[in-house]
Amino acid sequence: MKLLKATWDWIDDRTGMSTLLGPVFDHPVPAGAKWAYVFGSATMIAFIIQVVTGIALSASFVTSSGEAYASLQALSDPVNNPLGYLLRGMHFYGASAMVIMVGLHMIQVFLYGAYKYPREMNWLSGVVLFAVTLAMGFTGQLLRWDDIAVWSVYLAAAMSAKVPIVGSGIAHFLVAGDTIGGATLSRFFAFHVFFIPAIIFVFLGLHLWLVIHHGISEPPEAGRPVDPKTYRAWYHQYLEKHGVPFWPDAAWRDVVFGLAMVVVIMLLSWFWGPPHLGHPPDPTLVEVYPKPDWYLLWIFAALALLPGELEEIVVFVGPVIIGAILVALPFISNRGERSWKRRPWAVASVIIILMMIGSLWIQGVQAPWTPSFNAEALPQQVVNASSAEIQRGAELFNTQGCQNCHAIAGYGGQRGPSLSNVADRLTREQIAISILNGRRNMPAYATMMSPEDLSALVDFLQTRSERQAQPHTNPAGANTP
Amino acid sequence: MSTEPTNPHSGPSVAESLVDAGQPLVGRRAFFSKLSIGLSAVIGGLVGLPVVGFLFAPLLRNSRQIWQSVGPIGNFNVGETVLATFEDPSPLPWAGVTARSAAWVRRESQQNFVAFAVNCTHLGCPVRWLQSANLFMCPCHGGVFDSAGFPAAGPPPHPLFRYRTRVRRGQVELLVGTLPVAVEQ
Questions:
Q1: How many Å from the N-terminal Cα to the C-terminal Cα in chain A?
Q2: For tag attachment on chain A, is the N or C end more exposed, with fewer CB atoms within 10 Å?
């Protein structure tokens, strides 16, 4: 022990480590800053997991468009490469943890009014860190260089191309040329591994410095508003009375919560495994349904549900407005009440945003807008045709693509309404008009269907009525895409 | 003209300079300060400009469009729409399968072909051709295009991108080398 202490004393004397880190560990924090304050440090721990596992994975990942997939297959083999399998899982669940923790941290800071004077820059640097965390998630999914990743690059390029004037340039910049190819993966690898992490390191450093510089915000109390003229002096007096050293009085909770998070990440990685690797990244494989990872699924859903005429504007203006609101927040409201108990609009806005994201997320998981491409023809017991014309109409229902979007007795897609009982809702003429004219999400068949086929199809749909017993329903429910 | 004392022993000491800094010394420090900042900016520029130029080079490079074969004309039946594949005009040696691309090609008559990009104009997802329904459908958000590539339903705002086609020496060729999702509509 003596030798260890002597060694440390020598190192400390020569490096000045205590002088550098002492104030960080010893700085006083409000004694009331308890479990609600652990999400920031948890985000940082998740980021460290990402850095460490990412560095390890990069030792085996081949940054070549032609060979990355094979290297990922080798990394994902639980039998021959169990640690690679574990590390891929840790990197994925670590990313999920980072997104969840940064979200919880932002909600806590918002509800506690901790973004108010003098911590405006803490909030702004946090907003940047939130944005780049999502960017890391998206670029990371692309490095899973399979068919979905390749089409996700197209998706990113298509979204970027909607930006006025410079959109096409951004799309070419992302793809690193005129087509997806050898340079594309290298570019996203550089974004994911160097550029964006560099931004994170810079802003994380600033964020941490600001936490030390301004001190951790005290737990808010109703009726104790922030007054920029007196706050700093009051805060120092408050710390003198109620302050405790960060280490270990406050840090132990960060460590305990961080450990719990790491254990969850490890368990998920081991028992659930890394995300599924799809087909090879061959752009000629078009039977693909590119979908983002869960944390971006709600944005994907919003893009499906937006009215077409609004979408091009929203894709570009939406992020600008959200960014502007987040940046403006600490300037619009940098004083006054901090407690959520006296800020009902703050609480309401968090609930509304969470409900909105949650609803969109559920829609994204169900993806009812996706046509069912493998819809099986309706079984005979469902068709139950009483004439050859009705039988032909049932076949047309499948071959003309109706069943891709409409289900009957559970057979078919969910894009459009179920037609199991359509004859109870619409007359023969109304059905024919719908088919001929189409709707917003349904093509008009006026030029694509002969009068004879239309008549047969309508005849068949006229038999879809509750009045007529439906003896059979699909036990598996609607077909999947 | 130099304002420094010629004889170091007869001039003010360093301490005296700091305590009683005269205008000339302040001017000298201001000059070195500006010089250092300026030269640092030059260092940053010298290193940074090639880096930025390298990263943004794809924007400045002219698109290289070339005619690429998608197969002999006999492979295509009149009235049929099929998925045809072709190679990137200038693939990098390590591109592997990503050098491949696809287009929906239809032989409309003996010598006339039409070719559509496989990318939906909504968000670039791959559209699929439903032969019996005569429609292109997109899995991502349910976009539908008619057989001429025009939006028929759902969110797509523009028609499918069309490649120029021609027949040369018995081969069906497309003019490729364009990023379909980034084409001004």
A1: 65
A2: N
